Amino acid sequence: MLSKKQRIYKRTVDLIGAFIGLVVLGIPIIVLALVVYLKTGENGFFLQQRVGQRAKLFWIIKIKTMYKSTKLKGYAAFLRKSKLDELPQLLNILKGEMSIVGPRPDIVGFADKLKGEERLILELKPGLTGPASLHFYNEEQILSKQKDKEKFNKEIIWREKIRINMNYIKRYTLANDFKYLYLSALLFVKGNRNFKCN
């Protein structure tokens, strides 16, 4: 459980980081979404309800990667693999719905169903990145090899994410947040090549 001082420090870092991120990446984010609109005629942004802090639902913002048209199939794959589709969530962070580092925000049916001690995970704001996200940076690739993807996700990946996120909360330090942010930047630069989350 984070102390009051830790929560203040974490929120301060979130505000500064999200503001700088939007100043630097605001135009690239718009351009990435504009490509979708110009090529498909669809809204370049995608909104979906996710489970947030204390199980409160909020609308997550992403660059759209699922289209009616197949014109941008490769572009969509690039956005998902590079995680560039997640960048608009800097707005969610600025609004106080998310944090830079924390458990990833899940759709209804996962985090909101946590019980007992595991509900500690819901005390934190969901993150743009975090230890579980880094551990499963190639989650799509892992799931693609499974016969029953839904079952494997619920019984293996989800349970491991809970373990990792519980460990993150119980051993929380601001220094660890910076470490996960650094590893996320490293992953982006290396593009999944020989990446190891230690």
What global shape is seen? globular
Cα separation of the termini: 23 Å
**What is the rounded Rg?**
17 Å
How many helices does DSSP assign? 7
Order of helices and strands: HEEHHEEHHHH
Biggest pleated sheet: 2 strands, antiparallel
List the uncertain runs: none
State the share of residues found in helices, binned by percent: 40-55%
Q: What would the average pLDDT be, to the nearest integer?
A: 93
Draw up the topology in text.
Blueprint: H1 4-40, E1 45-51, E2 57-63, H2 73-82, H3 89-94, E3 99-101, E4 127-129, H4 131-135, H5 139-144, H6 149-170, H7 174-190
Parallel strand pairs: 3-4
Antiparallel strand pairs: 1-2
Give a brief outline of the structure.
Helix content is 52%, strand content 10%. By secondary structure, it is mainly α.
Structure description:
The structure is a single chain. The chain starts with a helix and ends in an 8-residue tail after the last helix. The chain is mostly helical and 198 residues long. It has a two-stranded antiparallel sheet with strand order 1-2. A two-stranded parallel ribbon has the order 3-4. 52% of the residues lie in helices and 10% in strands. It has one domain.
What labels would you give this structure?
198 residues; two-stranded antiparallel ribbon; 52% helix
